[in-house]
């Protein structure tokens, strides 16, 4: 009789443990076993190492996206526009509370973070770092529809301190300023949302952000554009880069490709890609002096002549199942990842190392991190 009772007690305890484990299947690093997760965004720096994020943390991988660890300090939330990734080791998280911006900085892949606070004027901070030390912070002082006044700050110590730049950029009110980018210590651009149909420009500086000028682009009026979002340039070296204008061509969403071979002094028109979703920008990666990957929700494209011609790449992994491309991230002509969303609203992470001819699905898991939570130095 005692043996029967003992067996009953053991079964009860085992059942309780199983229930406890099932109830704990949220993607938290405290779990003992790897947990299956969905990756909805990715930022890879080489074929093995990269970053992602979810609602309240940064994630890092060292095996090409199969396994991930929590690599950020404890946060209540984390938005897509609240962090900046420089390379496989260096990253910043920045979050604003009233006039204070809390900035976290790591240079060891998230094992340790340094926390600083800075007082700024304005809202909606946008961050860009050229290297581990030098960065710019752009904030909004005032805004209305397609009108925005912005302020600039600069740091030379990894974001520990910031100095306001006395700049004429405040004089350029036309257009919403979405992003800031610097090619080197002196030369940078600010993207613009414009409703101007006849003249298209973006803001350009050659002295680190102190003085800005309009850099005009030649546009064929036959496009009949209704609005334009002029993105910041993408460079693969000091001379070669591309510039994108997201707009409408005869009421159809489209992206105009421009290229430069002189470091951005001049921009030449290359081609136009159309797509069907006015609420989603074309996704683009430039990986060398000639190779550009581009995608919208229904198609993936490859150009090997700086955007002059395009080839549609098939994704042969899902047969006839309907999928939508959510993100692309290519590091070379051969190697890259795409994230697709299935008809069941599931995110799938796919990898290719042969230029998109074959795809392999990765099955991401969240694994316990030996350094979580990481130390935060204040």
3D architecture notes:
The chain is mainly beta and 378 residues long. Helices cover 6% and strands 44% of the residues. The chain contains one helix and 33 strands. The chain has one helix spanning 2-23; strands at 35-36, 43-44, 50-53, 58-61, 67-70, 83-85, 91-97, 100-106, 112-119, 123-129, 135-144, 147-155, 163-164, 180-182, 188-190, 192-194, 200-205, 212-217, 228-230, 234-235, 241-249, 252-260, 268-274, 283-286, 292-296, 299-303, 311-313, 323-330, 336-342, 347-352, 360-362, 365-366, 375-377. The strands form seven sheets. A six-stranded mixed sheet has the order 1-32-5-4-3-2, with no helix packed on it. Strands 16, 19, 20, 21, 22 and 23 form a six-stranded antiparallel sheet that branches. The chain has a five-stranded mixed sheet with strand order 6-7-8-9-33, with no helix packed on it. The radius of gyration is 23 Å and the shape is globular. The termini are far apart.
Core attributes:
single chain, 378 residues, mainly beta, 6-stranded antiparallel β-sheet, 6% helix, 44% strand
β-strand percent reads 35-45%
Number of helices: 1
Structural class: mainly beta
How are the strands of the largest sheet arranged? 1-32-5-4-3-2
- Total DSSP E strands: 33
Distance between the termini: 61 Å
The main sheet comes to: 6 strands, mixed
Radius of gyration: 23 Å
Topology summary:
Elements lengths: L1 H22 L11 E2 L6 E2 L5 E4 L4 E4 L5 E4 L12 E3 L5 E7 L2 E7 L5 E8 L3 E7 L5 E10 L2 E9 L7 E2 L15 E3 L5 E3 L1 E3 L5 E6 L6 E6 L10 E3 L3 E2 L5 E9 L2 E9 L7 E7 L8 E4 L5 E5 L2 E5 L7 E3 L9 E8 L5 E7 L4 E6 L7 E3 L2 E2 L8 E3 L1
Parallel strand pairs: 5-32, 9-33
Antiparallel strand pairs: 1-32, 2-3, 3-4, 4-5, 6-7, 7-8, 8-9, 10-11, 11-12, 12-13, 14-15, 15-17, 16-19, 17-18, 19-21, 20-21, 21-22, 22-23, 24-25, 25-26, 26-27, 28-29, 29-30, 30-31
């Amino acid at each position: 009789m005692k043996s029967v009772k003992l067996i009953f007690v053991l079964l009860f305890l085992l059942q309780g443990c199983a229930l406890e484990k099932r109830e704990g299947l949220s993607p938290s690093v405290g779990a003992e076993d790897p947990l299956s997760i969905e990756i909805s965004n990715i930022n890879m720096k080489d074929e093995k190492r990269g970053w992602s994020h979810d609602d309240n943390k940064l994630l890092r991988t060292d095996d090409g996206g199969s396994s991930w660890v929590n690599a950020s300090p404890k946060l209540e939330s984390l938005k897509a526009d609240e962090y900046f990734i420089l390379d496989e080791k260096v990253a910043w998280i920045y979050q604003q509370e009233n006039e204070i911006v809390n900035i976290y900085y790591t240079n060891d892949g998230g094992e340790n973070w340094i926390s600083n606070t800075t007082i700024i004027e304005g809202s909606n901070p946008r961050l860009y770092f050229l290297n581990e030390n030098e960065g710019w912070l752009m904030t909004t002082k005032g805004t209305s529809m397609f009108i925005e006044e912005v302020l600039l700050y600069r740091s030379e110590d990894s974001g520990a301190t910031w100095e306001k730049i006395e700049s004429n950029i405040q004089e350029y009110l036309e257009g919403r300023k979405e992003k800031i980018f610097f090619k080197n210590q002196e030369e940078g651009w600010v993207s613009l949302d414009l409703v101007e149909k006849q003249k298209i420009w973006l803001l350009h500086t050659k002295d680190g952000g102190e003085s800005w000028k309009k850099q005009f682009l030649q546009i064929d009026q036959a496009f009949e554009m209704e609005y334009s979002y002029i993105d910041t340039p993408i460079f693969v070296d000091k001379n070669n880069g591309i510039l994108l204008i997201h707009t409408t061509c005869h009421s159809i969403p489209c992206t105009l490709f421009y290229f430069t071979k002189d470091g951005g002094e001049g921009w030449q028109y290359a081609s136009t890609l159309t797509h069907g979703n006015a609420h989603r920008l074309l996704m683009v990666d430039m990986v060398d002096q000639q190779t550009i990957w581009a995608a919208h929700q229904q198609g993936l494209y490859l150009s090997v002549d700086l955007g002059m011609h395009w080839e549609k790449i098939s994704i042969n992994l899902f047969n006839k199942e309907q999928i939508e491309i959510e993100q692309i991230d290519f590091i070379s002509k051969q190697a890259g990842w795409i994230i697709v969303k299935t008809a069941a609203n599931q995110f799938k992470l796919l990898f290719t190392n042969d230029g998109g001819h074959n795809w392999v699905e990765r099955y991401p898991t969240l694994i316990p991190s030996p350094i979580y939570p990481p130390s935060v130095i204040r």
